[in-house]
Amino acid sequence: MDFDSAQRLTEILLALAFLQQSLEHLSAARDEQRLFALRIVLSLLLLFGVQSQWATVGLVILSLPILHRFQGPYNGGSDRMGLLILICLCLSHFAPNQSWKDIALGYLALQLVLSYLISGWVKIVNPDWRSGRALSDVFQFSAYPVSENLRSIARQPRLVLAASWAVMLFEIAFPATLLHPVTLIAGLSVAGLFHLANAVLFGLNRFFWVWLAAYPSILWLQHRVFASIQF
């Protein structure tokens, strides 16, 4: 994937993520409605490629009153990742030359890799994750809207243990997927399905759309860095 394609695809996916998030706020208080109505307009400009570079500037500026309104990224990791993608995307438009543009998009790709690697490391050093207890507690006691049928998974220790280790090992091994386009596509497919499962099972739909928006950057980086390496 070349730079321009990765940049444009990132714009489209991020715009869709922001639209999905913003629609949730249209039934909120009036001041909140105004903020997110403007965000919808800017996201539509970004989605359809109308003055995309200035749409990213507008979205960056708009993020400041939104952060102030909620005293920070109120949805945690998904909002932080969305802001990171937005800033890197904005820099990729306004950087003074192609080298700096590459750095902006490459930094986003690196952060995506680290998001999986660090998440896996934090889990694997935690004895509750290694024993399966942490994941069991997610199903059994979580405040997320897990159905009663899914809560019964907590009573299947072997399944929970296997799932825990599958998640940890995949996240730890994710950086290795960069070594070849096929392994990267496979890795991103598994990661995407993981986020989709979290969206379906726990309602964490923001993570699915936002993390998906970072995938073009790593596809570009893999091609940029590893294309000339023969295996």
Automatic annotation (TrEMBL):
Highest rank taxon of the organism: Bacteria
InterPro entries per the UniProt record, alphabetical: HTTM-like, HTTM_dom
Keyword Membrane among record annotations: yes
Chain segments annotated as transmembrane: 44-67, 107-125, 159-178, 184-204
Span of domain HTTM-like: 1-223
Alphabetized SMART domains for the sequence: HTTM (SM00752)
Keywords from the named record: Membrane, Transmembrane, Transmembrane helix
Gene Ontology CC terms, in alphabetical order: endomembrane system
Places the protein is found: Endomembrane system
The keyword Lipid metabolism is annotated on this UniProt entry: no
Membrane topology, from the record: Multi-pass membrane protein
Protein name: HTTM domain-containing protein
Native source species: Pelagibius litoralis
Organismal lineage: Bacteria, Pseudomonadati, Pseudomonadota, Alphaproteobacteria, Rhodospirillales
